[in-house]
Amino acid sequence: MEYVYAALLLHSTGKEVSEEGISAILNAVDITPDEVRIKALVTALEGVDIESVLAKAPTAAAVAAPVAAAEAAPVAKAEEVEEEEEEAEESGIEGLGALFG
User: Fold this and answer.
1) Which one of 20, 23, 58, 101 has the fewest CB atoms closer than 10 angstroms to its CB?
2) Could you give the CA distance from residue 98 to residue 93 in angstroms, rounded to a whole number?
3) Longest CA–CA separation in the chain, Å
């Protein structure tokens, strides 16, 4: 992912996305660059209009809302299960009381 971020950083500053540029950014943040990965990324980005791709990409807020909802669903379901277990336990105790008195 760091390689893509480096390419986006170069693009956002108006510089050419190149192997040398990506390597320089990675070296600056103490990441040992893998030249094969860099070459593959630069080759994959040849002819790609990065600006139009970014314009079509969903915003972080649009992606974050469904993710947050999906993460919250299991928590709500777990709370429901706990409440059901407590109710079942209480009714079981009441049933014992009826047997003895």
Assistant:
1) 101
2) 9
3) 86
Instruction: Indicate which CATH number applies to the domain containing 53.
Output: 1.10.10.1410
**Tens of pLDDT along 22-67?**
999 999 999 999 999 999 999 999 998 988 888 888 775 565 566 5
Q: Are residues 28 and 66 in the same domain?
A: no
Q: Which residue has the tokens 């990965």?
A: 37
- Give how far the C-alpha of residue 57 lies from the chain's centroid of Cα atoms, to the nearest Å: 14
Task: Indicate the pTM of the whole model.
Answer: 0.56
Residue 16 in tokens: 């050419």
* 83-99 residue pLDDT tens: 666 665 555 555 555 55
- The total of structural domains in the chain comes to 2
DSSP 81-99: HHHHHHHHHHHHHHHHHHH
- Enumerate the H helices of the chain as residue ranges: 2-12, 19-28, 35-45, 50-56, 60-100
Copy the structure tokens of residue 42: 């630069």
